[in-house]
Design brief:
Structural class: mainly beta
Radius of gyration: 23 Å
Number of helices: 0
Number of strands: 40
Largest sheet: 9 strands, antiparallel
């Protein structure tokens, strides 16, 4: 008997929306402030997954310039009807305090790999929108609705409104169909129809350690909805021994053989608290009871590291290469930029063939235009390295190896120029927004010479290295660095992303001085 091992999408892959079309399975996940927006993975067997598409690849579809940290793409919903893929998504501009500026859009494509259409604006009443295609041909948008008023609960329930495919807009009244349970913080709605019932799956409890998912049902799409008397369907709350914490927000899929699976987010903490990899995607087999409710395969409510795979032929995919030599004309899909699309004006694979050329832009604190290319950290033990050609002429020129959570939390081993030391290496650690230089004095390196930079992460600890000669051993630089601050859980405010690793350069003088990266190695241990 084959098994599924969780998480199926390790590293920052939250809010999974799972879909089957014939014999193919797809999962769309949130990307927040990272560009391009939304990641879609593909599987044939629910065991093996590969990246297949990032639908929001144009500024006209997703403009996140100035979006706050952990804004941008929240909880996409992927669906399919009559030969067309539908992707619903939220672009969150501001989410701190009483208000949420969250705008909901729809794009479509005939092929999952695109091209995807220009967006249709839907509404801004709340976040976590999803689209339900009823069997009578009507389409319905659901989302949680936000109530900013002081004496009201801000998560004000799940609302329903019809979407007209002909008019390409929402029509008719908005109706609140479900207020949630005593767990509260009801969000992430997905609607399904089975055996004469509309089943409403929601996330509750907030996306931290009290997270949960709850199922309700009704005989009419507008309700009234009754909650499963044995709710929630899943939670990790109250059991710190579970390997998968934060279990909740998710969606359902039925296999071609009539088996059902629940894709949900989860987190794996270090030191019992810090999920440096971010919120990940896991999969659980679920069973329908005789009285029409869902239960996890083992009959309990806790997520499992393994679950029974469906009776499908296994279909593995090739392993992702550990080294990117930048020998192609387009970036590998593992790479993301921060808030902005990659453009030749600052990111080029052709100006110096065989190299990624990044032209310096704004600082690591910028919410607008950073010259930064990074990929997810996907395992607690990993190593990474790059070779950079960079000749800074001023302390306002910086380039190097970045380990990045957001603008408030990152570690940066970089080249710059010091008035007395000359071309040199320094380590910046920004922790909860506080800037600190970890080396008492910058380390001098050779002029007009490539510099090799390396990092090794062992769970909560990062050690950095460098060398000037490829035949030499690596030289440690700086202390062992605790990287638990690069997690959702280390801040006083809720956050939603995960650790990224990559390359960056800044030109704080505004002259766009370039750094050339010859390769990037990333491998898990």
């Amino acid at each position: 008997m084959s098994i599924i091992t969780n998480p199926i999408l390790p590293g920052f892959h939250p809010d999974p929306s799972i879909l089957r079309v014939d014999d193919d399975y797809y999962i769309a996940t949130s990307t927040f402030e990272w560009f391009p927006g939304v990641r879609i993975h593909h599987s044939k067997d629910l065991i093996h997954w590969r990246f297949i598409s990032s639908p929001l690849s144009r500024l006209s579809q997703l403009n996140m310039i100035g979006n706050m940290n952990s804004g941008g793409i929240w909880a996409p919903c992927l669906s399919y009807h009559d030969g067309l893929f539908y992707l619903i998504y939220t672009d969150v501009k501001q989410w701190h305090g009483a208000y949420k500026d969250a705008h909901n859009y729809l794009v479509t494509a005939e092929n999952i790999e695109g091209p995807w259409s220009e967006p249709i604006y839907l509404n801004s009443s709340g976040f976590d929108p999803s689209l339900f295609h009823d069997d009578d041909g009507r389409k319905w948008l659901l989302n949680m609705i936000w109530d900013y008023r002081q004496d009201n609960h801000s998560f004000a329930g799940i609302v329903l409104q019809e979407f007209s495919a002909d008019e390409q807009k929402l029509i008719g009244p908005v109706k609140t169909i479900y207020k949630g349970t005593d767990i509260q913080l009801t969000e992430g709605p997905h609607l399904y129809k089975k055996d004469g019932y509309y089943y409403l799956l929601v996330a509750e409890g907030g996306t931290e350690y009290d997270h949960a998912a709850t199922l309700a049902r009704a005989q009419s799409i507008e309700g009234p909805y009754e909650t499963d008397p044995h709710y929630p369907l899943i939670t990790s709350k109250g059991d710190p021994s579970l390997a998968l914490q934060k279990a909740g927000h998710g969606s359902l899929v039925e296999t071609q053989n009539g088996e059902w699976y629940f894709a949900h987010l989860c987190g794996r903490p270090l030191k019992g608290k810090y999920c440096t990899l971010g919120r990940e995607t896991a999969l659980q087999k679920v069973i329908w009871t005789k009285d029409g409710w869902l239960r996890l395969e083992d009959g309990g409510q806790h997520p499992a590291i393994t679950t029974t795979a469906p009776g499908l032929t296994e279909h593995p995919f090739p392993e992702e290469p550990t080294v990117d030599d930048f020998d192609t004309s387009t970036l590998s899909p593992c790479w993301h930029s921060l808030r902005i699309p990659t453009e030749d004006s600052w990111c080029s694979l052709t100006e110096r063939p065989g190299h990624l050329r990044l032209k310096g832009m704004e600082s690591l604190s910028s919410l607008h235009r950073q010259s930064l290319i990074a990929r997810r950290q996907t395992a607690f033990q990993c190593e990474f390295e790059t070779k950079v050609d960079y000749e800074p002429s001023h302390y306002q020129h910086l380039a190097g190896l970045i380990i990045f959570y957001d603008t408030n939390d990152h570690v940066y081993l970089h080249l710059s120029r010091h008035e007395t030391v000359g071309k040199s290496l320094q380590i910046i650690q920004t922790k909860n927004g506080h800037y600190n230089e970890l080396l008492a004095s910058p380390v001098s390196v050779k002029e007009d010479t490539s510099i090799y930079l390396r990092g090794v992460i062992e769970k909560e600890t990062l050690q950095l290295f460098y060398k000037e000669d490829p035949t030499h051993d690596w030289t440690p630089i700086g202390p062992n660095i605790d990287v638990t601050h690069m997690s959702d859980d280390s801040s006083d405010q809720v956050r939603f992303t995960g650790t990224f690793i990559g390359m960056a350069t800044q030109d704080l003088a505004g002259t766009k001085k370039a750094a050339d990266f010859d390769y990037f190695l990333y491998q898990t241990k």
